[in-house]
Design brief:
four-stranded antiparallel sheet, about 60% strand, single chain
Length: about 120
C-alpha cells in the first residue's frame, strides 16, 4: 500500500501564503501523477492542481497565477505553494497520488483563509 502524509495546512489571512506538502511512502514503484484537490463546505471535491511524471501541470482556473505545484521525485513528495490566498480558497485540501492505475488519497488538511 501507499501512505500519504500531508502537512502545511492552517489559518491564514487573505493575501497571505501557505505551502502544503504531501510525502508518499510504502509501495512506491512508478508514480504517474500527483495532485491536490480541495473540498469547500457544502461543495464537491475539485481538482486544484496536478503534476505528471513528466513535469506537466494543470491548474484550476481559479488558482492560476497564484498557486504552484511542484514535485520532488527523490522524496516522492508533492508541494502546493499557495499565494495571494482568498477566502474562497478555504477548504480541506487532499493529496492524490496515482500509480499503476490506482489512486491514493491523503487524510486531508484544513486550509482556512480569513477575510
Amino acid at each position: 500500500q501507499v501512505q500519504l502524509v500531508e502537512s502545511g495546512g492552517g489559518l491564514v489571512q487573505a493575501g497571505g501564503s501557505l505551502r502544503l506538502s504531501c510525502a508518499a511512502s510504502g509501495s512506491i514503484f512508478s508514480i504517474n501523477y500527483m495532485g491536490w484537490y480541495r473540498q469547500a463546505p457544502g461543495k464537491q471535491r475539485e481538482l486544484v492542481a496536478a503534476i505528471t511524471s513528466g513535469g506537466g501541470t494543470n491548474y484550476a482556473d481559479s488558482v492560476k497565477g497564484r498557486f504552484t505545484i511542484s514535485r520532488d521525485h527523490a522524496k516522492n513528495t508533492v508541494y502546493l505553494q499557495m499565494s495571494s490566498l482568498k477566502p474562497e480558497d478555504t477548504g480541506v485540501y487532499y493529496c492524490n497520488v496515482q500509480q499503476r492505475g490506482l489512486h491514493y488519497w491523503g487524510q486531508g488538511t484544513q486550509v482556512t483563509v480569513s477575510s
